[in-house]
Write a structure and sequence with these properties.
The two termini are 14 Å apart. Strand 1 and strand 2 form a beta hairpin. By secondary structure, the chain is α+β, with helices and mostly antiparallel strands. The chain is built from 4 helices and 9 strands.
């Protein structure tokens, strides 16, 4: 399982892209997608919602369980991935590409994010 080096990661298994014009893209990692199993439903935050780092902002339902999504940063949602709402399996098949979840305009600097190597060590246990 490879984690793209350019992304940053949380201990809740979300990834965050580099910030461009104040906006970052958020998704869940391949590790989380594999642990969840087949994702069958995605409830994402709505455009205009404000999310707070570390707090629940949606959920993913799989054939195994329902898991909360946690915001890796504080900010305002500027886009939710409608493709994932329409086809939640994208989270499993392309977690770092088409399976991204939402884009957020940051309200400050992200904190407590892990590099790809730190995340790999964290998930190795």
């Amino acid at each position: 399982m490879s984690n793209p080096q350019q992304l940053r990661y949380t201990k809740e298994h979300e990834w965050l892209s580099a910030v461009e014009d104040g906006v970052a893209t958020v998704g869940i990692t391949e590790f989380a997608a594999n642990a969840l199993g087949d994702v069958v439903y995605a409830q994402l935050p709505a455009v205009g919602d404000t999310v707070t780092a570390g707090e629940s902002c949606g959920e993913l339902e799989s054939t195994k369980s329902v898991s909360d999504l946690y915001a890796p940063v504080t900010g305002e949602i500027v886009e939710a991935n409608q493709d994932v709402v329409d086809d939640p399996s994208l989270v499993n098949t392309a977690p770092f590409e088409g399976g991204w979840l939402f884009k957020v305009r940051l309200a400050g600097e992200p904190e407590d994010l892990l590099t790809a190597d730190e995340y790999a060590a964290f998930t190795a246990g």
